[in-house]
Write a structure and sequence with these properties.
By secondary structure, the protein is of the alpha/beta class. It has seven helices and five strands, in the order E-E-E-H-H-H-E-H-E-H-H-H. It is 34% helix and 16% strand.
Length: 200
């Protein structure tokens, strides 16, 4: 059976950061949560990956981030992994797979790998051992109703049942929303192009 991965990240943010592209001094897009699902040929969920990640440059979460994601400081301090460990484990989950995102999350992932290496730390498993691809432009084209919404709302704008417990801006819930949208499109005859699932 061939498989592929869908993933989503939650990363540090502040009021206005999105609109200003994180341009203020000290505002880095440090990963705080990783969610991923391994999907089978029929786009059913075979395996989950989820981790909380402790930011290095901005270890204190902004109230804005906590309000957005529901991730609080106490939970992060208790359950968060060091960035090198979490990202290395995630890249291991992705190894040899096509890895799809709804947006440029792979850019944020690459930034975080760079910061880890700049601190003199090593990331086990290679970023290059997986084929990362942003499928949002394709999905918005084949399902125009999705164009204005984030990944956690895909299920809603497509009129689908809620795909999992939780809410948008939780990385794993957002992955379930993403997977539900892909399954729905496949059921209507719109499958991911074969080239998207090329693993390298």
């Amino acid at each position: 059976m061939s498989t592929f991965v869908v993933f989503d990240l939650e990363f540090t943010t502040w009021p206005g950061a999105l609109e200003q592209d994180w341009a203020e001094p000290g505002q880095l897009r440090e990963i705080v949560q990783i969610g991923a699902l391994r999907l089978g040929d029929d786009y059913s969920v075979l395996e989950e990956y989820e981790a909380l990640v402790r930011p290095a440059a901005n270890p204190r979460l902004s109230p804005y981030f906590t309000d957005l994601t529901g991730i609080d400081q106490a939970t992060l301090d208790r359950e968060g992994l060091p960035p090198a460990q979490a990202i290395g484990d995630f890249l291991g989950f992705c190894q040899g797979q096509a890895v799809l995102s709804y947006g440029n999350d792979m850019v944020v992932l690459g930034e975080n790998v760079g910061w880890i290496r700049a601190r003199g730390e090593q990331v086990k498993n290679s970023y290059l051992a997986a084929n990362f691809l942003n499928v949002r432009p394709w999905l918005n084209t084949v399902a125009p109703a999705t164009a204005p919404v984030n990944v956690g709302r895909l299920w809603k704008v497509l009129g689908l049942p809620k795909p999992a417990a939780g809410a948008e801006h939780s990385a794993l819930f957002d992955c379930y929303s993403f997977a539900a949208a892909l399954r729905h499109l496949r059921a209507t005859g719109i499958s991911l192009p074969d080239g998207f699932l090329y693993n390298g």
